[in-house]
Specification:
CATH topology of the domain at 418-503: Serine Threonine Protein Phosphatase 5, Tetratricopeptide repeat
CATH architecture of the domain at 418-503: Alpha Horseshoe
Largest sheet: none
Distance between the termini: 68 Å
CATH class of the domain at 418-503: Mainly Alpha
Radius of gyration: 28 Å
Length: 593
């Protein structure tokens, strides 16, 4: 590749690597612990079936994490390398897509390289750190990769057209494959077929009449569009199925939509001025138009501007449409548990930057005719360099917040002092490091701030368990399951406290509840079986242990306990055989050699 062609992608890659060079040893944070560290589908030997059963709607995300674990266990550096590599690829894909759009809609005389400007800001903006440095949000960046790739391949196919029909078909097939991959990575990808229709209208067909003529090609994406609804109908899309349940105490669809007007305006403010970034924003609920009308006017103005420039600047019009479309799943009227997260801007940012810089290029083209092209282009390039360096420095600084659990959650508490989650997660970090008394104070603060937040009660109960205060733990954990009856971990912890106090009749139902909610809780199987053995119900214990062994054939403790249950039932030969099997599997059989 000639130097004249390689310097642009090389600059993009170098910029990303410079911004993220210090993150490779940052620890697992926040939901990383749930979705990676303690997730058996990820940490067991690579089992495609188990990964699929874990969450079909995010199958490729979890598969990538399982591959990471297969290669390097829980060494965080491998996960960070993968995340940064995805961001590098996405930045190059944005450069490619923006270049395609420019070449298919080459208007104006400006020499300003707006695809490169779009890409550099996308690559180094600190708002992107949450989708890159936060390992679990790989689901966002990976889905964005398939999304942008599918869109670019579709335009490449359309560009090949009648001149090279075989190549056009190959590019179209590749676009479809990438679109399907996006659907099994994260649910916002459901908007991709609509983005492809819009891209065809703006850059290929140019009119509704010609768009209809291309309907047969676009119809190929209808089955892709149906993937996520079908997964939902088959009860295989956990996030969508539980949207209403998780948000029932927080916002109605109308309130959520009104609040999102303010949230999107905040995202745009952060895009322009990335100051006071926060993992966990404290967002007031908007209950009426009076609570959000300035934001609504701003967004309507932006949408109106997009419509106004359809004829004069199609890349800008498409960018505005893409921005709102890419945000629509997470920032419309489907209530999510969290009002705002910075990673939700990862993909939409590409659209708004295309709009801004294509308009900038058009304006510079007009200005060049009046004021001299060299001077104008030099000034624009200098401004881009300053912006890129400033944003890159801000990204490096923002990444430092993620260097430890304590630094992350202290930052959250300082910026969202009225939200319980920061106190809870800082408390969990302290508890993990043996600072139980300090952790309890933070959990009590969280409970006082938000009594309806179950994790405050849950972790307070766990802290009491660490100190052996099972009566206090039972009180806190009862409140946790009262606030959220679907919290499997709280049922398990409550059952454990009852179990430690030999209250077997009280423990049993909570172990059952935990297993009904989550089938992967090995401890719940073991302890529920022990409850039944303590109550002299060996037949019930046998059923529990057999269920565990079907899930985990290599669980030696389960095999041993099944043997004990068989002995209690009177099946001496089978019981002794199982106990011997457990010994051979490495279980320390009491009294064994």
């Amino acid at each position: 590749m000639p130097v004249s062609r390689i310097w642009r992608p090389a600059l993009v890659v170098g910029s990303v690597l410079a911004c993220y060079q210090g993150v490779y040893h940052f620890p697992f944070q926040f939901d990383d612990n749930v979705f990676i560290v303690t997730n058996r589908a990820v940490t067991s030997s690579l089992d495609i079936g188990a990964v699929w059963a874990n969450n079909p709607a995010r199958f490729l995300t979890f598969l990538s994490l399982a591959i990471n674990h297969q290669l390097g266990g829980l060494d965080v550096s491998g996960y960070h390398v993968f995340n940064v590599a995805i961001h590098v690829i996405n930045s190059l894909l944005v450069l490619w897509l923006a270049g395609l759009i420019r070449d298919m809609n080459n208007r104006g005389a400006s020499r300003f390289d707006w695809p490169l400007a779009t890409t550099l800001v996308f690559a180094v903006h600190p708002l992107q750190t949450q989708a890159v440095t936060y390992i679990w949000q790989r689901n966002t960046s990976l889905a964005a990769m398939f999304y942008i790739l599918s869109l670019g391949l579709y335009l490449t196919s359309a560009r090949a057209g009648a001149d090279s029909p075989k190549a056009a078909k190959r590019w179209l097939a590749a676009s479809l494959v990438s679109a399907v991959a996006a659907m099994f990575t994260k649910q916002f990808s459901v908007t991709l077929p609509l983005a492809i229709v819009a891209a065809d209208y703006f850059f290929v067909s140019g009119s509704l009449a010609k768009l209809k003529e291309r309907a047969s090609r676009l119809a190929l994406f209808i089955p892709v569009f149906l993937v996520i609804p079908i997964l939902t109908a088959l009860n295989m899309n956990e996030e969508v199925l539980h949207i209403g349940m998780r948000a029932r105490n927080m916002a109605t669809p109308g309130e959520y939509l009104l609040t999102q007007f303010n949230v999107i305006a905040m995202y745009l403010r952060l895009l322009v001025l990335p100051i006071n970034q926060n993992l966990d924003y404290e967002i007031p609920l908007a209950r009426a138009l009076a609570d959000c009308w300035p934001s609504l006017i701003l967004l309507m103005t932006i949408a109106g501007a997009g419509l106004a420039v359809i004829r004069r600047n199609r890349p800008a019009a498409f960018g505005v449409f893409f921005f709102f479309l890419a945000l629509s799943v997470e920032s419309s009227f489907f209530p999510l548990e969290d009002m705002a997260f910075e990673h939700r801007m990862y993909l939409p940012m590409a659209g708004v930057l295309m709009a801004v810089f294509s308009v900038t290029a058009q304006g510079l083209g007009a200005l060049s005719e009046k004021a001299g092209g060299k001077f104008v282009n030099f000034g624009a390039t200098a401004a881009l360099v300053v912006i890129t360096v400033a944003l890159g420095a801000a990204t490096i600084q923002r990444n430092q917040v993620w260097r430890t659990e304590d630094s992350l959650w202290k930052d959250v508490i300082g910026k969202s002092p009225g939200k319980a989650r920061g106190y809870v997660n800082l408390g969990v970090s302290l508890l993990r490091n043996g600072k139980t008394a300090e952790a309890k104070k933070l959990f009590e603060k969280a409970v006082a701030l938000q009594p309806e937040y179950p994790y405050g009660h849950f972790n307070l109960g766990v802290a009491w368990q660490v100190e052996g205060g099972h009566d206090q733990a039972i009180e806190a954990l009862r409140r946790a399951v009262g606030v959220d009856p679907n919290m499997a971990e709280a049922h398990l912890a409550l059952a454990n406290s009852f179990f430690r106090k030999n209250l077997y009749m009280a423990a049993g139902p909570h172990y059952v509840a935990a297993l009904n909610l989550r089938r992967d809780l090995t401890e719940a199987y073991i302890n529920l079986g022990s409850v039944y053995l303590s109550l002299r119900r060996p037949a019930d214990a046998i059923k529990v242990y057999e269920s565990l062994i079907r899930r985990e054939p290599g669980n030696a403790e389960g095999v041993y306990n099944l043997g004990v249950a068989r002995l209690m039932k009177g099946d001496k030969a089978e019981g002794m055989a199982l106990i011997e099997q457990a010994r051979l599997m490495g279980f320390a059989v009491p009294g064994g050699k």
